[in-house]
Design brief:
The complex is a heterodimer of chains A (about 280) and B (about 375). Chain A is mainly alpha-helical. Chain A has helices spanning about 1-15, 20-35, 65-95, 95-100, 105-110, 115-150, 155-180, 185-200, 205-210, 215-225, 230-245, 250-275; strands at about 40-45, 45-50, 55. Chain A contains 12 helices and 3 strands; from the N terminus they run ααβββαααααααααα. The chains are: A mainly alpha (about 280), B alpha/beta (about 375).
């Protein structure tokens, strides 16, 4: 009952602050663009012609198999959704912990017979359900639109959505840690974005470290790579999974999840000890 | 079915309504003698002894800051018994809110021990059937009044059936029935405060902590809140009030402690603290002048008040001298009353005394620190 109350509260807050509607609105715009801007002419299972925003696609005399076109197109969309989904999701939930910790509000929640760990984790579950619903809407919508337009139902696209969700979970853990430490919504948005940006080039940590004179700094780069989420690798796995060119590697995914889990555990530990 | 001391200014119906709503549902069918035992029997079921204080702190210290330690609470010893209405008085920054937050597990003590109903406040079970109205509370503005009560009722572990009953009752109790469906962003400060009180009373608390409960509330609302508190006390609940509105505390509380710079400098019942001393007031009938010679013979201070002459004397001997002189002059005495100090006077006297002592202490320490000041430097 208490967990349910906090989850419902998380949704109410997201609705009232228009973050849920904003998330859904941006997703809807993305889907409408896909619906009306992309037109494909399929003949005998191959793409004969197509237009994007009314401009003809350059086929150069080729008629690629529609499955290839769909999986490639979905991989491109998934790449966009990966970044867009994470950005929107962080934006949607970043204010939760700072709002909970506001002077005068924290007292009302924490004076109830509910443990702090319970409260924070219930909020986390609320945020996960919120973002999952939005991802289902966004990825599911894109999947349905593409599939209806092409008659190709590439289930791997939906499977890849779980990778996007996993990456988001990791960043959500970090967002919660920043929120608990700083009680600041702007920081809870900026720092996860910065982490995302920072983690992308770290996929080339071997090359960056090799270019460094100092072994110390080279080790720091390697260390950061292993600690931080593997945003680039997980993103690559998303496209690879959709195009069917391989199966995702477990190490980037698991270490990314481990980072989020460590952040969440730290957030809980700090929240439990915090004075309000 | 009156509750609390009957206030002639209040219609009996209003008192009954407040009492009815505050009282535990199961209590309604019991004879009056059994009502105060409701909480007592609940305590026995939970294994909490009634003999033990409901709220206790022992050598409680709270310090803030790492480099420059600021001691907000300094060895605070307090005990509040079952059914007491306890007032914690103090100027702004005295440490009142810090103490309440520690008692509710919102803040951790630096050292010392605190117990609420025999449990460490960090244990969520210690907060079962404990109501809290924080100072400057901020309900989520996106909720309606009723939705806020539902949320916090659920967090308190109340079942839906109880919430369906309690929410309309409490909204009615605090006079917000018509505004229960409005978003809290549209509430005035007084309305928010009343809703906060409703939230604190949600799970029919055995212990109620109120931090500046009448803050931002108009005089009518204050009286209404006071009536609710008296009805809650009748139910047998223990009430802990933080306030710097001394007149409110004086009217509501049975016992108070004065907190000054983190230390409890005085505590006792209101009667003890405001006990009349040797000072008396004599009032003469309207139109009867106060003979100057009589007043000066007794060393009395004379004042005119609404056509009455009033004289204050310092002790019983002076009182008798003044009465003799007045009777001799034919003055008509209508009242002789011992002068009871107002709680405000006691508070100011105690705090000023502490400040003077601290000042003397500081001066002595400063003097002692000077080389050769007491020969020690030689």
């Amino acid at each position: 009952m208490k967990t349910w109350a906090v989850i419902v509260d998380t949704w109410r807050e997201a609705l009232a602050r228009y973050t849920l509607l904003g998330f859904a609105g941006v997703s809807l715009v993305f889907m409408l663009i896909l619906t009306f801007a992309l037109n494909l002419d399929i003949v005998d299972g191959s793409l004969a012609a197509g237009t994007l925003f009314g401009k003809a696609l350059q086929m150069r005399g080729r008629t690629p198999a529609i499955e290839t076109v769909v999986s490639t197109g979905e991989a491109v969309f998934a790449g966009l959704l990966y970044a867009l989904g994470i950005f929107l999701a962080i934006f949607a939930v970043a204010s939760q912990i700072p709002n909970l910790q506001r002077r005068g509000t924290a007292d009302l929640y924490l004076a109830r017979p509910i443990g702090r760990t319970h409260l924070l984790l219930a909020r986390f579950i609320g945020a996960v359900t919120l973002v999952t619903a939005n991802l289902v809407f966004l990825c599911g919508g894109v999947f349905v639109i593409i599939s209806l337009k092409t008659r190709v139902w590439n289930i791997r696209f939906l499977t890849a959505s779980f990778l996007i969700l996993a990456a988001f979970l990791s960043f959500l853990g970090f967002t919660y840690l920043v929120g608990v430490l700083s009680s600041s919504t702007p920081l809870s948005i900026m720092l996860p974005y910065a982490l995302y940006m920072l983690s992308l080039p770290l996929s080339a940590h071997d090359k960056i470290a090799a270019a460094m004179d100092s072994k110390f700094w080279a080790n720091i780069i390697h260390g950061l790579y292993w600690i931080f989420p593997k945003s680039a690798e997980v993103g690559r796995d998303v496209t690879m999974l959709i195009t069917g060119k391989g199966t995702p590697a477990w190490t980037p995914l698991l270490t990314t999840l481990a980072f989020g889990l460590a952040c969440l555990i730290a957030a809980v530990a700090i929240f439990r000890r915090k004075d309000f | 079915m009156a509750v609390g001391p009957r206030d002639p200014a209040l219609p009996g119906g209003s008192e009954t309504k407040i009492g009815d709503i505050v009282r535990h549902t199961a209590d309604r069918r019991r004879p009056p003698a059994c009502r105060a035992n409701t909480i007592a029997s609940a305590n026995v079921e939970e294994g909490v002894s009634n003999a033990a204080p409901v709220i206790a702190s022992h050598r409680l210290v709270k310090e803030f800051g790492r480099r420059r330690r600021l001691r907000a609470l300094d060895a605070v010893d307090l005990e509040v018994g079952p059914g007491e209405v306890f007032g914690l008085l103090g100027a702004n920054g005295a440490g009142k809110t810090t103490l309440v937050k520690i008692l509710l597990g919102l803040s951790r003590p630096t050292s010392g021990d605190v117990r609420v109903r025999g449990r460490d406040p960090k244990d969520p079970r210690a907060r079962r059937r404990v109501g809290y109205l924080p100072e400057g509370h901020r309900f989520p503005e996106y909720l309606t009044g009723a939705a806020a009560l539902r949320l916090f009722g659920r967090l308190a572990g109340l079942p839906e059936t109880a919430l369906k009953r309690r929410i309309p009752e409490l909204l009615e109790l605090v006079g917000l029935t018509d505004r229960g469906g409005d978003r809290l962003g549209r509430y005035s400060k007084g309305m928010t405060q009343r809703l906060g009180l409703a939230g604190a009373l949600l799970d029919e608390p055995e212990v109620l902590f109120l931090d500046e409960p009448t803050d931002g509330v108009d005089p009518v609302g204050r009286r209404h809140i006071r009536d609710i508190l008296l009805a809650t006390r009748e139910r047998g609940a223990t009430i802990f009030i933080n306030s710097h509105l001394l007149s409110e505390v004086e009217r509501t509380c049975t016992r108070v402690a004065i907190l000054h710079q983190g230390r409890v400098v005085r505590q006792g019942t209101i009667d003890d603290l405001t006990r009349p001393g040797e000072r008396f007031r004599i009032r003469l009938a309207p139109g009867t002048p106060m003979p100057e010679s009589a007043a000066s013979a007794a060393g009395a201070r004379v004042a005119s008040n609404n056509g009455h002459f009033e004289a204050e004397v310092a002790d019983v001997a002076a009182l008798n001298r003044l009465v003799d002189a007045l009777r001799a002059s034919g003055a008509l005495i209508v009242e002789i009353a011992p002068l009871r100090a107002a709680l405000e006077d006691v508070f100011i006297e105690v705090v000023a005394g502490e400040d003077r002592t601290a000042g003397v202490g500081h001066a002595a320490a400063a003097a002692g620190a000077e080389p050769g000041a007491n020969g020690g430097g030689a």
